[in-house]
Description:
Blueprint: H1 8-33, H2 48-55, E1 63-65, H3 71-76, H4 81-88, H5 122-136, E2 142-147, H6 155-165, E3 170-176, E4 179-180, E5 183-184, H7 185-188, H8 193-198, E6 204-208, H9 212-227, E7 233-238, H10 249-253, H11 261-268, H12 272-281, H13 285-311, H14 317-325
The structure holds thiamine diphosphate (TPP).
Thiamine diphosphate binds next to strand 4.
Amino acid sequence: MTTVSPSRDELFALYERMLLIRRTEERLRDENKAGNLPGAVHLYIGEEAIATGVCANLRESDMITSTHRGHGHYLAKGGDLNAMMAEIWAKKTGICKGMGGSMHVADFSKGILGANGIVGAGFAIATGAAYSAMLAKEGRVVADFFGDGASNQGTLMECLNVASLWNLPLVFVCEHNTFSEFSPSKTVTAGNIVDRARAFNIPCQVIEGNDVIAVWQAAKTAVERARNGGGPSFIEAHTYRIQGHLEAEDLFLGGQKYREAAEIESWKAKCPIKVTRKLLEAGGAADTARLAEIESRVMAQVDAAVRFAEESPPADAELAFSLMFDGQTP
Ligand SMILES: Cc1ncc(C[n+]2csc(CCOP(=O)(O)OP(=O)(O)O)c2C)c(N)n1
């Protein structure tokens, strides 16, 4: 079997999407530190290649489920940046009218079925969506993003079983970022995660999640299989969480450490954006100029989105009440 690679233009597009996620998250990190955000944020810095490489193979009508670390999935699937930032700032113009915040960014019109604060909750949502896609016979595919920690939830087994049995158009994407909160994965996860899917006769790939080309290739195979009626696939993508589990995790840890600074540095050297930039720079001066243009375009988008969020009116408290109590007086 010959392996297809992204064209040079596609690689530039992958680079730009990863950079948009990175610059957005760096800005959120800084705004959080400055005390400007109303809630917590879980950042995806270092893991951008996975959402980007997978979603580049999806159509707008395809669907994804996401996690508490969901900004990257939302942006990779084409979610609007301004509306996401306004949501994180709890503003009326937010993608969920400021009712959900960082952990609940969703846009059904783009197939983004939602970030989710409940670890592992995406499995059943994705499986249900894939079942409906199969019944509708419109060739839609679902990608389900989840962490290595989430793979210890029992619902994964139920969903793998049903996905295999019913031949659902579903791609399971395990983002193995080495930690579950403050626990190194090896202390809480037995065996190889991918073996859970193998037990249900689901085709599996274990890949280097910081290599956007490898992710793109694995996703292409899996998405095409799903779209052509070949059923589910499982991708275990290895990566590393560079930031804390959530910003300001030091407050939780009270000085305790669960990893070494040298380990973080060694993974920074494997940054998916740096690696891709090197590949593109090798093309010469014109490509280097194109990279600079991308950088300024992305920065302008992020600055504009923060301005939009800051200048938007606050979320509607009455709407929050009516959504919670369905018109009844609390
Ligand atoms: C059902 C449930 N159990 C526990 C938690 C607390 N919790 C939040 S994030 C997290 C770790 C998840 O690890 P993983 O799935 O690997 O995702 P990562 O944070 O590494 O991206 C836990 C245990 C939760 N939110 N939901």
